[in-house]
Each structure stands twice: as C-alpha cells, then as structure tokens.
Design a protein that fits this description.
Strand order of the largest sheet: 4-1-7-8-9
Largest sheet: 5 strands, mixed
Distance between the termini: 49 Å
Low-confidence stretches: 1-19
Number of helices: 1
Radius of gyration: 18 Å
Mean pLDDT: 82
Helix content: under 10%
Number of strands: 10
Strand content: over 45%
Order of helices and strands: HEEEEEEEEEE
Amino acid sequence: MFRTIALAVSVALLGGCTTVMSTAQQPKDGPRARLRLAGWSDQMQVDVRQPDGRKGTLYTRSGFYPGDIGNLGMPAGPSGKKGRNEYYVVGDQDVTVRVGVDLVVQKTPSYDMQSICSVSGTFHVEAGKDYETIPVVITKPGSNKILFCAIRATELVPQPDGGVTFKDLRVTPLLKR
C-alpha cells in the first residue's frame, strides 16, 4: 500500500515538473552563445532555434528540476543570479522571451484578487557572447498590485581587467494576437 501511494505521489510530482523541463536541445559545438534565465521557477520561458533548425523552449528551473544542473560558469549579471538556469543556445539568432507573473493582491474567504503581468518580446544573441534575461516587475509599495512589467535583456561584456560590464539590449515587444 505504501509503495502504491509513494509511486502515485512521485508520478504526480514529476508530472508537475514537466512544465519546467526544457524541450530545446543545447548545441554541443558550433556557433553558440550562453543565456541565463534569471527569473523564478515557472515564470519565464524562452523560445530558441535548436541545432537541427527546429524551435524549442527553455524554462527557468525549480529546485526540483531532475535534469542537468545547468551552471555553465557564467559571470554574475546585473541580477546577481547564477546557477541552474544557464543554457547554451545556437548563436546568431533572435530569441523570444515570455514572462507570466500572477500575484495575489487581496485574499477574501471566497475569492483571490490577482494582479497579472504577461509580456513577451525578442532580442538577438550573437555567437561567443553571454546574455542574461530577467523579468522586471514593479509593484505598488506595500502591495502585490503590479504597476509595471517588462523584460530586461543584458549582454555580459568581459573587461581586460577580468571584470564584467553590462550592456542593456533592446527587447522588441511582441504584438498580442
């Protein structure tokens, strides 16, 4: 009986994790860039062209992500985040970023009022360079009410002294259909 319950719970947990498992294959060689998704789990996804030319999706990973850790040793970007959300992507392509943030503004016994941010856009990555993308969400002070949301993309530019500077990139908003 215990084994049956444990198996059912494991399957349910793994089923829930599939939303944060990437469908894009990372290139092993050739012209490639490194890309860090510096958002929170399930909050951001990036569509990229894979080595075989097909489209695939990369996700921010939760602490329960069962796959490769994804720490490629990229320098810290302006977000200060490092680690499990670093991917190799095919270089010289436009990537599409989609962000979805849903915050509870007020809880009542029968209803949760929510503030939602849903935004998407594209930016270009070049081979041999490092990039970071992060959702920018500004809330009303003392509240979860979202006042502004956007996508920030940054190129991490190495300096001769070993430091890194940050070059903000233009993120072109996608029109809603």
